[in-house]
Amino acid sequence: MWEKVKSFASDFFVTGDPLIYGADVSIVLAAISIVFVMTYFKKWGWLWREWLTSVDHKKIGIMYILASFLMLFRGGVDALLMRAQLVVPEMEFLTPDHYNQIFTTHGVIMILFMAMPFMFGLFNVIVPLQIGARDVAFPFLNALSFWLFFSGAMLFNLSFVIGGSPDAGWLAYPPYSGLMHNPGPGQDFYIWGIQISGIGSLMTGINFIVTILKMRAPGMKLMKMPMFPWSVLSSCIAIIFSFPILTATLALLFLDRYAGAHFFTLDGGGNPMMYINLIWMWGHPEVYIIVLPAFGIFSEIVSTFAKKKLFGYKSMVYAMMIISILSFLVWAHHFFTMGSGADVNAFFALTTMLIAIPTGAKVFNWLFTMFRGKITFETPMLWTIGFIPCFVTGGMTGVLLSVAPADFQFHNSYFLVAHFHHVIIGGVVFGYFAGLYYWWPKLFGFKLHERIGKWAFWLWNIGFYLCFMPQYALGLMGMTRRVATYGWDKGWWEMNLVSTIGAGLMGIAFVVQVWQIVYSVKHLRKDRTGDPWNGRTLEWSIPSPAPLYNFATLPQVTAQDEWWEEKLLRDNGQSSSVPPALEPIHMPKNSGIPFVMSMFWFAAGFGFVFQWLWLIIAGLVGVAVCMLVHSFNYDNDYYISVDEIKRTEAAIREVPN
Amino acid sequence: MTQHEGTNPQAAGLHGSLKSYTLGFLFSIVLTIIPVAIVMNGWLEGAASSIVLMMAAVLQLVVQLIFFMHLREEKKPRYNLVTLILGLVILLVIVLGSMWIMLYNTVAT
User: Fold this and answer.
1) DSSP secondary-structure letter at A555?
2) Of chain B residues 55-94, which have a CB less than 8 A from chain A?
3) CB B102 to CB A281 under 8 A?
4) Would you say the ipTM is above 0.90?
5) Which residues cross the membrane (chain A) (predicted)?
6) Do A197 and A208 belong together in one domain?
């Protein structure tokens, strides 16, 4: 019996690496301390009622952002481990196998479990407030989306202590991700982690399209909508068309691995290149999915801190929509070297270059918005200003890569690594940070400390350029991506040393940001105005943090920057607005089903990974039962009475000084 | 939430009847049985079987759209129709693009 347990455990848990044992110990310690603290302070009921079962878009958004910060930490540690391995030639810190696992999990986590939830978090907290709605169109579905993402992310992250991490790169190209070359459970963790969270992403895409099209405040025509919801709309359109491709592709890969199919194997009539073709049909739109909302955030911030209306509103809208559609026409530029001939490569090189045009139009719009504006340099604006040169240069190296003949030289070199980090960190990460700093007061009712924020900004920026500029040169010198080590005779080590120092600076910058949050909570200076940046759009017209129902009375919109125009009218003493009478507010009830159902999905996914049929069946039956229970539950809404609204509003407006 | 009340599906009585749902269900079952029977019994081969299977798939899509997605019952603005057209365009891009890329692949062929 004992022998059996021992042999099971030695397969089930990852053994033999001191780093992993360290992680095991810290996971157990962290779990014990969380359980202890929660029990000691009797917070379990609070956690369940206020967070786990909540369908409030603001709370779901905060949970998304919190989860993405945890994932940023995990992915960042992966990055630092890789940079530590590459700091000098012939380093013996990580074994090549372990290195493969780390670059794989780094990529997957940063794109799918950091950037995506950070983006969904910002969608959730801001879109309903900006369009004057009380929640998203489908609040239950929204909670389900979050918990599906969460269980998918947990399933994926479990792989490094149980079963073994995936190690076939962030897109898991076959044949290496096929059963023949990769028999362990790592790739199945990859498939099911992404599949389960992918269901959530697709539902969020649908949810926000409906919210934006159907739930805008009275009078807010589409062309009067703020720019951030526009960017969300264009991003969600790309989500609903591209995520099904990912789901289908990974399902086929799963059939190859689980049921002995031959879609992507080298034998039996399969073709691994078909996988590469299919996965990039999702993969390319995906990078626009995450960067478009960042463009929306910058548009809001530039306009607020330049105190001017956004320049070229219509061209901005068209540019985003064009990018969203064009993103489906460029995927083959990821595999120019696959050998599809000059015609195919020429077509996809041209479409890729075309995308630079709408993107360039947006950059000019931001510059012209700033032109002759009264710019102030608070942290959100700093990130925006840092973003523009960074994204422009990063975009230009992208255009270099899109030149198909030259790409045969750049392909899979560090030049490429530098390029995509350049645009994803410089565009997406800087954008979401800008958005988080900008909307933080709306989320929590206080600003983050400015001076520490400036330190974090400069550390991030200096670290970023130190880390990635040398990598362009390294790529041209012949260093290929995913090498675990290199020799002294290559002449690469000085540049790699600089790059590692840069990565370290970004690591410090992240710590400074966490310190900034802790410091700001400790020295809390409550913002009583609800409008600390002198904002222009509707989210600033309500108190911070927003009450449960967001708007006591729904706003009547007449202008593009509604709140700004309203403030101008008030300054001139012309504000006609007699607040309309309060009415009972219709709200969705909390529900535990999203959480429970996602846990069943987690169980089913875990069963699929280890091919335990009993757990698969139990998990899927649980999912089905949850769906049935929810289908027959008609008691899912309630009304907030006028009295309660009055009490809440009075409590918010009361100044206890 | 409150904006929703006017467009409550039950109240507006927009969606299909028992008859249309039953009909749709029968059509979709029949369109599933035909390809399964053809493949299992080996009635057709080669190009003929591909064509019949693909036609059954396309008809299945149409049945789903009309009977379950209520494409015809839409009022203005026609978001469903616009989305459908965009979806078809992207579907064509995916299928034709993949064929173009893979058939001209000098390594695979």
Assistant:
1) P
2) 79, 86-87, 90, 93-94
3) no
4) no
5) 20-41, 62-82, 102-127, 139-162, 189-210, 230-255, 287-305, 317-336, 348-368, 380-404, 416-440, 452-477, 497-518, 599-632
6) yes
